[in-house]
Amino acid sequence: MAITAATASSIFTYNHTPPSLTSPSFLSSNSRSHFSLAAKYNLFAPSSSLHRKQQFVSRTLVCSGSNGNSQPMVPPYNVLITGSTKGIGYALAKEFLKAGDNVIICSRSDERVESALQNLRAEFGDQHVWGTKCDVRDGNDVKNLVKYAQDNLQYVDIWINNAGSNAYSYKPLAEASDEDLIEVVTTNTLGLMICCREAMKAMLNQPRGGHIFNIDGAGSDGRPTPRFAAYGATKRSVVHLTKSLQAELQMQEVSNVVVHNLSPGMVTTDLLMSGANTKQAKFFINVLAEPADEVAKYLVPNIRSIPSSGSTRPTYIRFLTGLKAYSQIFSRLAFGARRNRYFVEE
């Protein structure tokens, strides 16, 4: 899971606005309040403060494995995506398959894996997509996932950590059950750590090396996520974990494995839509959210460009940039664009 309704429900208490766009002569008081909401969450931040994709190193990446052999990383790529039987994970799998890559999908549910696998194989054939059950919270499950990938593909070029949970719960932390908190933290934090550990161990021994992408979510920028406090805290930890792993690899002088952040923005998953029970949430979902397929069409070419360019630098790829959010909110307030796209607003 990427970003949830936390994004919509937590973008509501902004306290500063772009003065040129919020003067009384330009916007109504209601419009000014929406700009004020968006400003606090850095949607209007100057480009220097936004997470942007870093410049690539223009050279062919030749990865050295522990056995002394080396191979250039060239397409088609072998891709593994956790939590990929629905939502943005499934959409990413489809886009990689369209690009000619080989893909492994996984989920906690055997039934969902089998259903997704049947649909993908019907469209792309049996020789390019595989699937298996994996609970990312279980170290043995993730180790078996790595073995499954090696048995079927020999190596993984791109590993995307998409599995995540909010326990489908929208309530203050004081009302959260033990079970919900354990579900969120063990999936989003422990599960991510286990997957990163096993992915790095496998890729360090691959002649082609590899790229790991950790998907962030609401709270990753340090802003509050009311009613999603546990989820936001775990997603904040995603960014810290990625930076720490980047530093560890650099200290160890490892150049054939790179860890990146990936931000899909506000995606119209079932989880996001089920949390749209306030006027503000409906406003921001209508204005900023996009279907998973549209987000994947943007993200996959950007992900694939990293190994193809020979980059060894960590990147932070964002779908919903501050400029894009600013433009869409402005178009909505000025011209009524995107009104009632998903929900009827009062």
UniProtKB/TrEMBL annotation:
It comes from the Eukaryota. Pfam families: adh_short. Gene3D superfamilies: NAD(P)-binding Rossmann-like Domain. GO terms for molecular function: chlorophyll(ide) b reductase activity. One of its GO terms (biological process) is chlorophyll catabolic process. It catalyses: 7(1)-hydroxychlorophyllide a + NADP(+) = chlorophyllide b + NADPH + H(+); 7(1)-hydroxychlorophyllide a + NAD(+) = chlorophyllide b + NADH + H(+). Coiled coil: none annotated. Transmembrane segments: none annotated. GO terms for cellular component: chloroplast thylakoid membrane. Its EC number is 1.1.1.294. It is found in: Plastid, Chloroplast thylakoid membrane. Belongs to the short-chain dehydrogenases/reductases (SDR) family. This is chlorophyll(ide) b reductase. It comes from Artemisia annua.
